[in-house]
């Protein structure tokens, strides 16, 4: 896990996670290494959870 990964129980907004995803792609130059791909997958899961949480709160 990267040093930027949240600690268990912490919650980042979907926008914040999306910014991390965009920054990862920019750093990688459009091609992800195996390690970057693993980080990307974790970020996407975190982003989806944040979006679901926001939808539930809105309901």
In words, what does this structure look like?
The protein is an all-alpha fold and 59 residues long. Helices cover 68% and strands 0% of the residues. It contains two helices and no strands. α1 packs antiparallel against α2. The N and C termini lie far apart (33 Å). The mean pLDDT is 84.
Summary of the model, kept short:
The chain is mainly alpha-helical and 59 residues long.
Instruction: Please indicate the percent range of residues in DSSP E strands (runs of 2 or more).
Output: under 5%
Ends distance? 33 Å
- Helix content percent band: 55-70%
Q: Which structural class do you get from the secondary structure elements?
A: mainly alpha
Structure annotation, total helices:
2
Query: What is the average of the pLDDT values?
Result: 84
Number of strands: 0
Helix and strand run: HH
- Give the overall silhouette: elongated
Taking the sheet with the most strands, its summary is: none
Low-confidence stretches: none
Rg computed from alpha carbons, rounded to a whole number of angstroms? 12 Å
